[in-house]
Amino acid sequence: MCTVPVFQHICRESYSDPAAVYDALKRRGMDVVTVTDHDSIDAAEALRHHPDFFLSEEVTCRTSRGTELHVGVYDISERDHFEIQRRRDDLPALFAYLGERELLFAINHAFSALTGARAEADFDEFAERFPAVEILNGQILAVANGHAESFATRHRKIGLAGSDSHTLVALGQTYTQVQGARDCREFLNGLRQGRTAAIGESGNYGKLLCAVLEISCGMMAERPWTRWMAPLLAGVPLVVVAIVLRELAFAQHWGRSTSRLVGVVETAG
């Protein structure tokens, strides 16, 4: 379910059928496919029989400071899912488990306001504890992706990319490439070795607006009684403008702050 107040009880984050997601990605040229649902592995049942599919997850975590994070964890088992969910509000325990299982994980959309406030200590933790950083997200603004890429380069992190598309339209337009990988095993080995290239486009106002409208239509199709909300869709363009402005301000603030902090450390050294 979505995390927006009120709507969290009636609206999903996505209404895309897993099989339709897989088929769309294959038509658009993907050699291997993964799905990173929020705190869920429900897509596995429909897709596990495909030899070019591996299971992943986007984990909602909370630090001891109360900061919310989205952490991408790749190539997991069902048992991993349950153990990760048990530890998601205890980051040291989660990091210990991921290290023990040798699972690749990344901080997602670090320079986006999507998960709320940040603190300088959060970025210190990203630099110290995360082996990978999502540097190209297909729903996040280019300025936020640019700062994420700069952060990853400064701290020598593996750079990953993904569509983060909650609808079928933008699937496969943003992705991670491992040159020469012929199957899931070779692709995953390439990820862990950092032999990655982030390919595709960032998000923008139009993509976000289309996603919100499509998800709203999905909600009304699944729950017909919500159709009384249809007139409210007229206000969605203005809401999306506000979201974009907030994203721009957030990315610029933390982009400047993290660059300045690194400069101070390097000068002092």
Keywords:
alpha/beta; single chain; six-stranded mixed β-sheet; globular; two-stranded antiparallel ribbon; 8 strands; 269 residues
Word description of this protein:
Helices cover 43% and strands 16% of the residues. It is an alpha/beta fold. The chain has one domain (7-268): Metal-dependent hydrolases (TIM Barrel). The termini are far apart. Mean pLDDT is 93; it is low at 263-269.
Radius of gyration: 18 Å
Indicate the structural class.
alpha/beta
- Beta content: 15-25%
CATH class equals Alpha Beta
At CATH level 3, the topology is TIM Barrel
Question: Secondary structure elements and their pairing?
Answer:
Layout (H helix, E strand, L loop, with lengths): L17 H10 L5 E3 L8 H4 L5 E10 L5 E7 L3 H10 L3 H10 L4 E3 L12 H10 L2 E6 L4 H13 L3 E5 L11 E4 L6 H9 L4 E4 L4 H18 L13 H33 L1
Parallel strand pairs: 1-2, 4-5, 5-6
Antiparallel strand pairs: 2-3, 3-4, 7-8
Helix pairs in contact: 6-9, 8-9
